[in-house]
Amino acid sequence: MSQSTFTILLGGELSPTERLRRAIGGSRFIAADGGMRHAMALGVIPELWVGDFDSTPPELEGDFLDVPKLPYPAAKAATDGEIAVSEAVARGARRLILAGALAGERSDHALQHLLSAVGLAEEGFDVLLTSGKEEAVPLLAGTIELDLPKGSLFSVSGFSELKGLSIENARYQLADFQLPFGSSRTISNVAEGKVRFSLKSGRAIVLARPYDLSGV
């Protein structure tokens, strides 16, 4: 087990795909409120359960009576997910997997997870957001690589103007490109395998769909 990798179980949709199971293998787990329902599907026991528990059905509580709970009032200054991340960091997390972060009934929560991930990356944390079928990683100044199946779709969404953006090993490559804030130029690209992203300045998220091979 990795002592510094934590999977945060969030309330959005989650498909227990093979990529997801590989990503969370050996990690520690913290559940945020109704995200605990994913623990049963994944066959894991979190070490902590946090939140105001307003989205937790009574039968779910009965299934995890031995998991320590850290309750918060509904009127609080942070989301259950942010509280769970803070608890993981306090326990030594350096890599964070936000499972159930990208889909669900609350698009405001999904957007906040993306923004929070960029903020965490700026603090030096390694962050992956996943729904099982879709993945996202922050892109800041520097270089990252994503190992994606050939023909799978990905997009780069800028949270600011992006300067010096390069994308290699993709159908639509870029070299030292300046992307205006709000531009759709980098939406719906196709991986040729492991894709390399470089950025000189700016903040962005790479969203990938490794099981969507419509680009083949």
How far the N terminus sits from the C terminus, by CA atoms, comes to 37 Å
The geometry reads as: globular
Q: Do you know the CATH topology of the largest domain?
A: Rossmann fold
- CATH architecture descriptor of the largest domain: 3-Layer(aba) Sandwich
Radius of gyration: 18 Å
Q: Which residues sit in consecutive blocks of at least 5 with pLDDT less than 50?
A: none
Instruction: Kindly provide the name of the CATH class of the largest domain.
Output: Alpha Beta
Number of domains: 2
Decide which structural class fits the backbone: alpha/beta
Query: Which bin fits the share of residues in helices?
Result: 10-25%
What is the average per-residue confidence, as pLDDT, rounded to a whole number? 92
Number of strands: 13
What amount of the residues lies in strands?
A: 35-45%
InterPro entries: Thi_PPkinase (IPR006282), Thiamin_PyroPKinase_B1-bd (IPR007373), TPK (IPR053149), TPK_catalytic (IPR007371), TPK_catalytic_sf (IPR036759)
Keywords: ATP-binding, Kinase, Nucleotide-binding, Transferase
Pfam family, one: TPK_catalytic
Domain Thiamin pyrophosphokinase thiamin-binding: 142-205
